Task: structure prediction
Amino acid sequence: MVAKVAKKNNKTSPNHNSENDSEEGFVKVSLVNQSVFIRKKKTCPLRDIPLVEIDYKNLKLLNKFISERGKIIPSRITNVSMKKQKALATAIKRARHLSLISPINKDTTQN
Amino acid sequence: MALYETVFIARQDLAAEDIDALSNKLEKIVTEGNGKVVSKEYWGLRNLSYKVKKNSRGHYILLKIDSDYAAVAELKRVIGYNEDIIRSLTFKVEAHVDESPLFVSASAKDYKAGKVSAKKEPTKTDLVLDQVQFEA
Result:
């Protein structure tokens, strides 16, 4: 048995947009299985950073989004929005071409 | 008219005067093609993250250009056969940013006269970035 329990949206998450009101407003509570699975919704870590700032010159930002091996971390893991991930990828590729960041890191292969 | 950015890496054994002469020469090409160089940035002698044409260090220079493509194409052509330039990149931008995080001085000469030792204050972006963490 599954009952839909109405839950006030503005109390739990004031930052959320009201896009998915019908989905967000309800939390599914299973009466049969008591363990209710509620996952916090991840948001883009770059939401406070304007798109212009995602630049090949901003090495501190780029280094956050490349792995130890020098690969671009997929947005599936970092949860960066699609628009900004696209900008990130371009910026990282430009920085690689200009030898500002390394495209590969061989040191970590020893471990 | 469109906005462009051109970055090029000059060979490490060039003197400061040579670098300024080189960037002035390239600026002249743009101005002769009815464009203009909005500003120039010198990023200093940086370590390259991998060897480029057997160089492990290089002088970075950024030109912010407001010009038609014809002048930029000429600039790219000249950069292509200049042996002092080991790597370059030119592309269109929406807007020019005032001062990049890598900025050291306006020209190579200024860099030698007084070394920039003052640490830059962390920007708003830096503060946000310190919070960013991934589970994986």
